[in-house]
Amino acid sequence: MEKYFEFSKYKTDVKTEVIAGITTFLATMYIIVVNPSIVSATGMSFSGVLTATILISAFSSIAMGIYAKNPIVLAPGMGLNAFFTYSVVLGMGVKWEVALGGVFWSGVIFLLLSVFNIRTQILKAIPKQIRYAITAGIGLFITFIGFVNAKFVVDNPATLVSIGKFDAITITFLIGLLLTAFFVVKKFKGALIFGIALTTIMAIPIGRLWGDATAINFGTATLVTFNGIFSAPDFSVFMKLDFINSLTLAMWPVIFAFLFTDMFDSISTFIGVSEAANLVDENGEPNNVKQALIVDALGTTLSGVFGTSAATSYIESATGVEEGGRTGLTAIVAGLLFLPFIFLSPLLSVVPSIATAPALILVGVFMMKPITKIHWDQFDDAIPAFFGMILIPLTYSITQGIVWSFISWTVIKLALGKTKEVSWMLVIIDILAILLLIL
Asked: Is residue 393 part of a domain?
């Protein structure tokens, strides 16, 4: 194991990697319940999508660890599941079986692009200034998600967003955030896990002794809820995809949208986590990039087969990286931790969203480090970088931030005559991005 994962090279060990894997799982396990709660609106079985979510998350993450040796977890993507449900199935009236076929075929194209190194070329076409901005933008995005999950930041019809009310939930969250920050500053091993555990314990009285949890915890009366231990797996949506009808002409824009969104979500996450952890080769490229992209593409392909929206690399992987995870063992541990919940999914309700929120927020802090590498005094670099960084959290979409940073970079550089800084691949990406915006 030492030789395969090169622990000494990355200055890590088995204990550190296991702790990192547990941390990443705790930060991503919400998807087991949240994904089926979204996708089941299509008419698919909630328990069937839950089983599919667990299996695809486990398989893809373990494959990432073994084959690509990277500490990145994969699971059905937030945003991708909403697009699948509300835009394609409910909005366009596409049957969910056909939509699953669209996910499958987008994964097949994705896989071909990865095998033939086209996706690697796409990644290399992304200017380094944009990469730094994407990392920082993802950090801001993760932080925003954490504050929203804790109801510390809420929507407001007048100002779009505003600070939430101070009640039992937000006060408990703030105490958990300060404690977790203290553990991080003191460099305690497993700081984020301790923070999650302590915040969960502190949240137990909410809804029992004081406070109201109904607004934040799927309508249940208590924030920390025990709903039993065992639940049988449901394979009712497995292999229910429609291979043929998903290839009709009307479905190709949908397949393209699946492909483009998934591709840039995963590439940007891969860049962000690699930059934050300094997991790059001598050329500054992410380690084992081709292998990682192949695993990501395979995860998308199998998502359609198992019965869920597309899997993608998860930005929450940065929580494990911050705990010291540097090798594929982190992803393997996280992936293995998904498997028991095929039978133990009710236990997930024990950890509320305010308990994982402090970890997400502090990871945002860690991911801001590359912002110092942006050439802020060179405006033709700074403006596109800023667009990418700020639009990711403001649009609640990694893809939108990337698209507008690419387009603005190309327009500004060409207007200044700096053609050498715009590769032919970047021009093709820009064209595809504009097509996506039109579609």
From this structure: no
38, 48, 126 from 232: Cα distances, Å: 20, 10, 45
How far is 131 from 264, CA to CA, in rounded Å? 12
Look at the chain and report how many structural domains it folds into. Answer: 1
Share of the chain above pLDDT 70, in %: 96
**Is 377 part of a structural domain of the chain?**
no
368-376 contacts: CB < 8 A, separation 24 or more?
A: 368/136, 368/139, 368/140, 369/135, 369/276, 370/131, 370/132, 370/135, 370/136, 370/275, 370/276, 371/132, 371/133, 371/136, 373/128, 373/129, 373/132, 374/129, 374/132, 374/133, 374/136, 375/129
Residues 398-412: tens digit of each pLDDT: 778 888 999 999 999
Q: How far apart are CA 135 and CA 403, in angstroms?
A: 15
pLDDT in tens, 269-320: 887 788 777 787 777 778 888 899 899 999 999 999 999 999 998 878 888 9
Given pLDDT bands bounded at 50, 70 and 90, which one contains residue 118? confident
Give one DSSP letter per residue of 139-166, joined into a string.
HHHHHHHHHHHTTSEEEETTTEEEEPP-
In a domain, 386, yes or no: no
**Measured between alpha carbons, how far is residue 391 from residues 178, 386, 398 in Å?**
28, 8, 8
Q: What CA–CA distance (Å, rounded) separates 388 from 393?
A: 9
**Mean pLDDT calculated for residue range 356-363:** 84
State the CB neighbour count (10 A cutoff) for residue 232.
9
Mode of pairing for the β-strands spanning 160-163 and 74-76: unpaired
What is the residue range of 112's domain?
2-372
Per the structure block, which two tokens stand in for 408?
Answer: 């603005």
In a domain, 44, yes or no: yes
Please tell me the distance from the alpha carbon of residue 317 to that of residue 25, in angstroms, as a whole number. Answer: 8
pLDDT above 70 for 218 = no
**What pLDDT score was predicted for residue 70?**
93
